[in-house]
Amino acid sequence: MGTRPAAAPGAPASMNPSPHAQGAGTGREPGAQPAATARTWPAVSVVMPVLNEERHLTDAVRAILTQDYPGELELVLAIGPSRDRTEEIAARLATEDPRIVAVANPTGRTPQGLNIAIAKSQYSIIVRVDGHSLLPADYVRAAVETMEETGADNVGGIMAAEGTTAFEKAVARAMTSRLGVGNARFHTGGQAGEVETVYLGTFRRSALDRVGGYDETFVRAQDWEMNHRIRQSGGRIFFTPRMRVTYRPRPNLRALAKQYYHTGRWRRVVGREHQGTLNLRYLAPPLAVVGILAGTVAGVLGFWPGWVLPGGYAVAILAGGLVEGRGLPFGALVRFPLVLATMHLSWGVGFLTSPPGLGQPVPPKP
Question: Which residues make beta-bridge pairs with 75?
Fold first, then answer.
């Protein structure tokens, strides 16, 4: 899979059944769940790039291996050069279950790890998972059923952020609110239907082959960028609230700011690469940063109406935080406005300072 793939038209291929899948038969009553013995279930490859995931890896792997899915399932772990015990844990897990395959991801970067894992996998349905995500027991079954019912090339669901500390709970609420992240259905939920992108995703291998896999120059935003190419090639991306993945938020303010800063930088790269893909949801944070800076400078220079912009933003965040934060524990509630501002402003600064050369292939040395 190349580092700068180009989209080409194509049609979804049929999904290969597992040689060990249960049963074969005809349909089911409308609205009823399919019986495991009434059909042949396609085999599925789960791919997971991991780096420094000592804290969550065992739980994430267990959630995959215990899926309520009657068909064949394999898990390919692409292991980056971690600073913790991730490699040791992955090696142990691979020796304990023959369904796990561990491969090296020398760069440690997500798109390279995904392409390596996909190349190593063997089945025609590819389920992408992160090392800090927890799949519910019916996730793979829901993905396969949705893919078969809709004919989509990629299906995905809700990024259900859940925290354990007061700070993480505040971040989780921000990541699932319109005030925090806009109206993307994979964040806030909504009705099933076609969308621009989904969280993680379950793909037809034929669609990945058609567009050349993940673009390895996109260190961040590689999901959105590839889903765009799939749609440009005639494919469909489908959201369903049936697929709900537990996501663990960043544990502190510094990590959160870094995450959103880099996301903003790379989302601008996607906008440069694919003209016409930026809308108000993506432009709101940088516009807020420009307005706050301009108003602050004007206020400092003596033009007192300038303070309306930073003051208005602060009031909006405090008031909106009280509304959106209803039901949070007190410790999370008092952190909630700061979390919202950190997400908005870090994303906006990252977008505004994204260098023109970011995401461009590095020319070979002479």
Answer: 46, 100
pTM of the model: 0.80
Answer whether CATH 3.90.550.10 is correct for domain 41-250.
yes
What is the number of other CB atoms lying within 10 angstroms of the CB of residue 49? Answer: 26
Q: How far apart are CA 186 and CA 68, in angstroms?
A: 23
Helix orientation angle between 280-300 and 308-324, rounded to the nearest 10 degrees: 130
Three-state secondary-structure class, residue 348: helix
Closest listed residue to residue 360, CA positions, set 243, 257, 216 = 216
User: Could you tell me the residue ranges of all domains in the chain?
Assistant: 41-250, 272-352
List the pLDDT tens digit at each of the 366 positions of the chain.
544 444 433 434 445 554 444 443 333 433 445 544 567 899 999 999 999 888 889 999 999 999 999 999 999 999 999 999 999 999 999 999 999 999 999 999 999 999 999 999 999 999 999 887 889 999 999 999 999 999 999 999 998 888 999 999 999 999 989 898 887 777 777 888 999 889 999 999 999 999 999 999 888 888 888 999 999 999 999 999 999 988 889 999 999 999 999 999 988 988 888 877 777 778 899 999 999 999 999 999 999 999 999 999 999 999 999 999 999 999 999 999 999 999 999 999 999 999 988 877 655 555
